[in-house]
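Hey, sorry to bother you again with one of my protein questions. There's a protein on my desk that I can't quite get my head around. No rush at all, and the record is pasted right below.
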Amino acid sequence: MTKNLVPLIKKAKTGDEVAMNTLFESFKPLLIKNSVDSSKRMNKDCYQELSLQFILAVQAFDLDKYLDD
């Protein structure tokens, strides 16, 4: 996940499903980690919500704000 994500984000924002899936798979371990409760059980509702929020965040992400030209 240390590679430059800008090209993938640009493609995902234009509707490229392969790019979005690649991004999602890169962040999936983090989504899973944050979906496990204190008893070490996976909260599927939490995972689903985090997944949705991840996709929405990629779509809303303003690359211009964070990139130096």
